[in-house]
Amino acid sequence: MPTKARIRLWSTNIENLNFVVNQIKTLAQKTGVEISGPIPLPTSRMEVPVMRLPHGEGKKKWEHWEMKIHKRIIDIASDERVMRQLMRVRVPDDVYIEIELI
């Protein structure tokens, strides 16, 4: 029987990600279960160069667009009561969450 739940969170907006992480931490502190984390993982950075002039005449000038993806991992004891409350946590649209029982 699994005794821990691993919660993976990722988002492009770090403020919303930290908001959800703080909600999970306060939930664990209120219920008194053991929590490990949040463990920050390396930030993925994607860069897309785009040519400013689409017709290609003149000098080639480039704009660089980038997107950063911030990730966190939290390990929490998988008590049934805690898991039910965890499902009720408000998660913004740009924060993605994945729960795995280990």
Structural overview:
It comes from Sulfurisphaera tokodaii (strain DSM 16993 / JCM 10545 / NBRC 100140 / 7) (Sulfolobus tokodaii). This is Small ribosomal subunit protein uS10. It holds the Pfam family Ribosomal_S10. Part of the 30S ribosomal subunit. This protein has one domain (4-52, 61-101): Ribosomal protein S10 (Alpha-Beta Plaits, 2-Layer Sandwich). It is built from two helices and four strands; from the N terminus they run βαββαβ. The longest helix is centred in the first third of the chain and has 18 residues, at 14-31. The chain has helices spanning 14-31, 80-87; strands at 4-11, 35-51, 62-77, 95-101. It is an alpha+beta fold. The chain is elongated, with a radius of gyration of 19 Å.
